[in-house]
UniProtKB/TrEMBL annotation:
It is found in: Membrane. It comes from Aliidiomarina sedimenti. GO terms for molecular function: kinase activity. PANTHER family: PEROXIDE STRESS-ACTIVATED HISTIDINE KINASE MAK3 (PTHR43065:SF10), SENSOR HISTIDINE KINASE (PTHR43065). It catalyses: ATP + protein L-histidine = ADP + protein N-phospho-L-histidine. The lineage of its organism: Bacteria, Pseudomonadati, Pseudomonadota, Gammaproteobacteria, Alteromonadales. It comes from the Bacteria. It holds the Pfam family HisKA. Residues 258-464 form the Histidine kinase domain. Keywords: ATP-binding, Kinase, Nucleotide-binding, Phosphoprotein, Transferase, Two-component regulatory system. Residues 175-227 form the HAMP domain. This is histidine kinase.
Amino acid sequence: MPLLVIAGAGIAVGLDRMATLESDRLKDDVELIGRAIRLPIGEALAVNDEEAVRRTLQSVFDIGRIYGASVFDVNGNQVAAAGITERDLTTSQVAQQVVTTGEQQERYRQVSGMFLFSHFIPVFDDLGRTNGFIQINRRASDFDASLTQLSQTAWATWGVLCFATLAVVIFGHYGGVGRHVNALTQSMNRIERGERAHRADEAGPSELAELARGLNRMLNSIDNKDRELVQRQAHEEALAQQLQYQEKMAAIGRVAGGIAHELGAPLTVIDGRARRLLKDNQDPTQVRQLEAIRGQVARLTRIVRQLLNYTRAGSSDYESVQLRPLANDCVANLRHELTSDELQITLDVPDDLHIEADEARLELALINIIRNAAQSATREVSVAAVSDGDGVQIRVRDDGAGLPEGVDQAQLLEPFFSTKTQGEGTGLGLAIVHNVVTEHGGRVAIANHSAGGCEVTIWLPTRALPVIKAVENKDGE
């Protein structure tokens, strides 16, 4: 807009200058006409040849656009006239100035109701004396009319230039800059509303594209910092949970160690003496009582052993473990605990399936899972294992009654929680399984199977790292 205003001011100044120049040109034209007829008129006046004067005045209309011409004597009396003229200039001051000074004069005058431009030219005789003057009239509007078309053309051109310039600026700015600025503004508004995943379109002029790239880099940096913060918080929570877990295990370990120490020796003595009495006693009633004593001693011994297994940490030196032989050993170790010869334990474990693990701890976990399944099953327990690329999934399923309603997985994994009747379980089997699987970086799932019975699924990574070891070494802490 300032440029267009300056251009308009320039046009106005130029038109004003051109108007002045055109006016001067038209005045010069009138002066030249006057000079051209002054000599013949002067000669005609010298001999009082009025006819020659009239012919000369008529010739003016052939030379230029003149509205009137007349010749006056030194007293202002009209000698001859043609066109629109004044008849009496005896009292005209401009006429007196022409006669007195001998210089040409020009005035804008009202003649016969028309506004005219009059040019007065003195006429001299042979001796150089003023013997009259010529008045040539031209309509004053001719001076303005000559510039009207030029002014209209100039201002029309300026108007078209304004419209074209504004159109180019507005639409060009919008197409080249405005729409990209609007898109960037909309992106900022979306980000302000919480759309953290949105990124600005890196398009448009290089400055705006660089601004969009800078905004995207800033958002990516914020996202990275947020992820790092979340990871650090998760790491700190894992450390806190691990510390709490270690403290709990340490406390239970101290209790279990004390129980094992305090009960181990008395239980061994009781079992030894009951065994000795069984050798020397033939009374069936007493034999049953002694065997019941030995059974209770074995139960107490098993509870103490499970407490120790629950609190004992695994080794951090893992080795490659073949799952098929390990599963066979677990089933063989449980054969003597099976109360029914009709119970079948089937294995579907590939021969080449192996993982990195603490073999003793993994065997302990599998034995507890299979034992629980065997105790709940009616006829069959199935053990299956399959690799999913990153790890191994082991499923142990029984055909028993399944889990009771209202019991969730979190309760089942708590120590000393059992769904069995009082005196049949310690509630440590699944807790031991959970500890072992967690040590290996795996997970446990317990649920009723759609076909009946309960299914325990554990997933272990193929290349496991101890959870405690990984947490302690993360970021050098």
